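Lab notebook, design round three. We kept the backbone fixed and only want residue identities now. Task for the bench partner: fill in a sequence for the structure below.
Input structure tokens:
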């Protein structure tokens, strides 16, 4: 788990300093049905959503999910969440690191009346930090697409959804309206996506409004020119894919 100093945030045991790191509170009480914008990343900053909790004191179950609002276009980030009356729901959300002007949004489908409170732990830092989430959004093409390539003069550690280096993770959220097969590859420089560099033995069938997480399970350090490829069995409209990387000089 990250820890904080008065002016920096450190990521796990790797002691990576995120410049001018600080905590920001996210909070919503009794959000209306539909979309509510929760937090906008300021100019020149990035943000990590590290934890989320929801508490419903009474009434029917709260049903909702998170989205990324990019200039008025919304991309679903996860499966549907829910909490029943009298219970608290909490989890690490496993979201991408947000870029300047990104907006974190919730979309409530039912249960949004005046007995619900929601919280988010947000860690904000300067956007020149070596920690980011390369992503693809919109209509994601069928076939192989390169998601990320390690830049010249850099090496990269692919992080998991909790922003540690224990294992690398890649994510895809299907919002296409139907099921698609999803498969990630970690490809050495000069190579190509093949069976020998898959992150899983076979593609995963991902139903609509569902998130696919592919884990490296070790071996998640990439050298200059290495790249991550995502393969889809068909075009995926209104969808998002991402990974999170820590880049350091070689």
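Proposed sequence:
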């Amino acid at each position: 788990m990250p820890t904080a100093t008065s002016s920096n945030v450190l990521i796990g045991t790797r002691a990576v300093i995120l410049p001018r790191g600080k905590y920001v509170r996210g909070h919503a009480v009794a959000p209306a049905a539909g979309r509510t914008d929760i937090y906008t990343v300021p100019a020149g900053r990035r943000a990590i959503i590290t934890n989320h909790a929801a508490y419903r004191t009474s009434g029917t179950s709260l049903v909702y999910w998170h989205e990324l609002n990019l200039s008025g276009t919304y991309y679903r980030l996860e499966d549907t969440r829910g909490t029943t009356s009298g219970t608290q729901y909490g989890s690490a959300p496993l979201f991408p690191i947000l870029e300047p002007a990104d907006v974190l949004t919730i979309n409530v489908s039912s249960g949004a009346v005046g007995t619900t409170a929601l919280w988010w732990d947000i860690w904000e830092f300067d956007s020149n930090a070596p920690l980011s989430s390369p992503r693809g959004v919109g209509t994601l093409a069928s076939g192989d697409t390169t998601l990320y390539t390690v830049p010249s003069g850099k090496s990269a550690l692919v992080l998991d959804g909790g922003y540690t280096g224990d294992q690398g993770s890649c994510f895809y959220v299907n919002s296409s309206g139907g099921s698609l097969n999803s498969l990630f590859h970690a490809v050495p420089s000069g190579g190509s996506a093949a069976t020998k560099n898959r992150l899983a033995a076979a593609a995963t069938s991902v139903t609509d409004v569902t998130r696919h997480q592919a884990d490296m399970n070790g071996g998640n350090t990439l050298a200059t020119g290495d790249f991550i490829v995502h393969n889809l069995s068909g075009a995926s409209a209104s969808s998002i894919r991402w990974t999170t990387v820590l880049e350091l000089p070689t």
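Keep this in mind before ordering anything: Residues 3-126 form a domain with the Jelly Rolls fold (CATH 2.60.120.340).
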